[in-house]
Specification:
82 residues, 4 helices, 61% helix
Length: 82
Amino acid sequence: MNTHAYAARQKKVALLVDLLVRAKITHADALLATPEEWATAAKAVDSRPPSEETIELVLMALKSLETPLPGGVADPFEKVTR
């Protein structure tokens, strides 16, 4: 993959992840998405339907966003109540 294609794929991944997070779609939900649903999400970000490789990168990104950070801190901006 050349540099331009890699950058374009990373941009599409970022746009799709942003859309899915804003729509409160979890990693588990995204795992069940059909090709038609992926195409709809891509259309919402003015893109062509994602390839399997792009979908895998989106799923990895969603999973990493849902994984708590070491020390039990899930969100650094979450209000702490004691």
